[in-house]
TrEMBL record:
Cellular component per GO, a single term: plasma membrane
Assigned keywords, A-Z: Amino-acid transport, ATP-binding, Cell membrane, Membrane, Nucleotide-binding, Translocase, Transport
Keyword Membrane applies: yes
Protein name: Cell division ATP-binding protein FtsE
Molecular functions (GO terms): ATP binding; ATP hydrolysis activity
Subcellular location: Cell inner membrane
Organism of origin: Pseudolysobacter antarcticus
SUPFAM superfamilies: ACT-like, P-loop containing nucleoside triphosphate hydrolases
Signal peptide (residue range): none
Record-linked Pfam families: ABC_tran, NIL
Family statement drawn from the similarity comment of this UniProt entry: Belongs to the ABC transporter superfamily.
PANTHER family per UniProt: AMINO ACID IMPORT ATP-BINDING PROTEIN (PTHR43166), METHIONINE IMPORT ATP-BINDING PROTEIN METN (PTHR43166:SF30)
Membrane-related topology note: Peripheral membrane protein
Length: 340
């Protein structure tokens, strides 16, 4: 478990303290995939780099499995760096070394000297990330996705219990992003290691994370399960991320809705309710007519969800809404405020 208690971080710029993180309290459970989302400059890199002490907090306590890592001596720090692997947006591979040598590098640093032992471990790691056929290539001969796979193999070399991902898919196209995220999900599942990732893309969070925290101007403004935060965002910054992910322009939406007659509601279905034929039967039973203004069915990690914005007219609208709510459909107005 990773715990941040009242963490502050300032940088000294031109002799003055510039705050980057304020009063961060955060608890990341062992074995979960935890995402931190924020816009540029929000403090994401600073926050993730605290966890392996690439940056030191200015104040507060930072515990890993109960130990305050800011108190570690040089030996303790070396051990920490082996326990906490990291991958980077621009991969940070050694360009003059082959794929196999890049992956072997942390093993050598950790003092493994047996060539046979290193070769076995490197082969295992390259198989794990699907690069067995590329061991003797140089980074320049690889695609972006392959480079990140080398980064992942290298980060896993010393069997860490935590993997930090610093915008690991931001330089990749959508398809490659999906395959790298799938690999991270597999690693989390099969090796049981904790993954902490930072990103500015809600879609990355939606695909792999169990829980998420939203960082805005150095403060945590919202956190919770991805489904709760993504489907029912409370803070303006979170709402903006969700709308961005859905390609919705909030102002356009408002002016579109001004021209719609009827009562506009936003329904959120989760899990099995997503596929149930609820809407038709409730509409028939209550005499309500509806038109669909927008809709989407997707998945949050493994769980299906649907969101529909409807205009309701005629019939007994209140009865329809309460029957939907009784069937575990979240019923809200268009701003997300719960109605039932
Ligand atoms: N080494 C540094 N020295 C001085 N100021 C820094 C340093 N690193 C970050 N900052 C400042 O701290 C704030 C947070 O930066 P940080 O890089 O953590 O944000 P971020 O959310 O990761 O942004 P980005 O996505 O653009 O990397 C910014 O105002 C930044 O200018």
């Amino acid at each position: 478990m990773i715990e941040l208690h009242d963490i502050h971080k300032s940088y000294r710029v031109d002799g003055r303290e510039q705050p980057a993180l304020h009063a961060i309290d955060l608890r990341i459970e062992s074995g979960e995939v935890f995402g931190i989302i924020g816009h540029s400059g929000a403090g994401k890199s600073t926050l993730i780099r605290l966890i392996n002490l690439l940056e030191r907090p200015s104040a507060g306590r930072l515990l890993i499995d109960g130990d305050d890592i800011t108190q570690l001596d040089a030996n303790g720090l070396r051990a920490l760096r082996r326990q906490v692997g990291m991958i980077f947006q621009h991969f940070n591979l050694l360009s003059a070394k082959t794929v196999a040598q890049n992956v072997a590098f942390p093993l050598r640093l950790a003092g493994v000297s047996s060539r046979a032992e290193i070769a076995t471990r490197v082969a295992e790691l390259l198989a794990r990330v699907g690069l067995s056929d590329h061991a003797d290539k140089y980074p320049a001969q690889l695609s972006g996705g392959q480079k990140q796979r080398v980064g992942i193999a290298r980060a896993l070399a010393c069997r860490p219990k935590i993997l930090l991902c610093d915008e690991a898919t931001s330089a990749l196209d959508p398809q490659t992003t999906a395959s790298v995220l799938q690999l991270l999900a597999e690693i989390n599942r099969e090796l049981g290691l904790t993954i902490v990732l930072i990103t500015h893309e809600m879609d990355v969070i939606r695909r792999v994370c169990d829980r998420v925290a939203v960082l805005d101007a150095g403060r945590l403004v919202e956190s919770g399960t991805v489904a709760d935060v993504f489907l029912h965002p409370q803070h303006a910054t979170t709402r903006r991320f969700v709308f961005e992910a859905e390609n919705v322009d909030e102002n356009e939406l408002r002016s579109d809705l001004a021209n719609v007659s009827g009562r506009v509601v936003r329904l959120t279905f989760r899990g099995e309710a997503t596929y149930a034929p609820l809407l038709g039967s409730i509409a028939r039973a209550t005499g309500v007519d509806y038109s669909i203004l927008s809709g989407r069915i997707d998945r949050i990690k493994e769980t299906p969800y649907g969101q529909l914005t409807l205009a309701l007219v005629g019939g007994d609208i209140e009865a329809a809404l309460s029957q939907l709510a009784a069937a575990n459909v979240h019923v809200a107005d268009v701003h997300g405020t719960e109605l039932h």
